[in-house]
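To: structure desk
From: M.T.
Subject: fold request, one chain
Message: Could you run this one when you get a chance? Sequence is below, nothing fancy, just the single chain.
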Amino acid sequence: MKHVAVLMGGLSAEREVSLVSGAACADALEDRGYRVARIDVDRDLARVLERLRPDCVFNALHGRLGEDGRVQGLLDLMAIPYTHSGVLASAIAMDKPMAIRLFASAGIRTPQGVETVLDDLLREPPFEPPYVVKPAAEGSSVGVVIVHDAEDRSLSARNDVDRSTRLLVERYVPGRELTCAVLGGEALTVTEIAADEGFYDYRAKYTDGFARHLVPAPIDPSLFEQVTAWSEEAHRLLGCRGVSRCDFRYDPAQGERGLHLLEINTQPGMTPLSLVPEQAKHRGIEFKDLVVKLVEDAACDL
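Reply: Done. Structure tokens follow.
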């Protein structure tokens, strides 16, 4: 019987959703006969793993420490196979400005963006509104703000942003929200996300009733093919393992040049509302089978 340690919780702003993802994955593994240890991750993780000596790790952490290459490096050093991507892919994907430079070099269209800090942004915005401001290294739309016009004071009123925090400012792409999961190098399908209020923020992602998922997305076949091709290419460029998910905006007014890749997520959510399990189910892969597949494909970088 394989012993799997499920890492969840952690120290990031995405702790709560990670606990939900981890619990769902642990339940699925236990139901399939695995021996499971549930670990709410703290700074004593190495000591806990040394005591438990699991056969592999299911990494259900989200955000900093858990999906930016740091936990992956620890697991490599301890020679414990783990799910999802390795150190390099995880670190690049979490650093949005770096990932976007890589995508652009491969011919994948991304929004025009500038890296800055809050004081510089408030003093001299790089673009006329509307534009999007996001932390350079966070996930789940944590801290994302859309500045709609020159009179918008939402940024200057915020007191939860460290003045030295790296920010990515991007031109706002109007239109439709699309996302595509890649499992084992193959795109699953494309989902269109329709947020009932505002944009697809943290609340819409993890609160029932705030967004509708259209699976498969009701889009032109050529656009569908472009989304899946770019998602597979982004997965390959970063050297991702297991499953990843790419998020896009599509502006129909720009025609074939309206598609823009926003980011890639190397550890997508695994909650009951999450997009990857939903796309997998569309392809005939039940949630428990998806979790088992990720565990059976676990590996180290070393």
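Reply (cont.): The radius of gyration is 19 Å. Let me know if you need anything else for the meeting.
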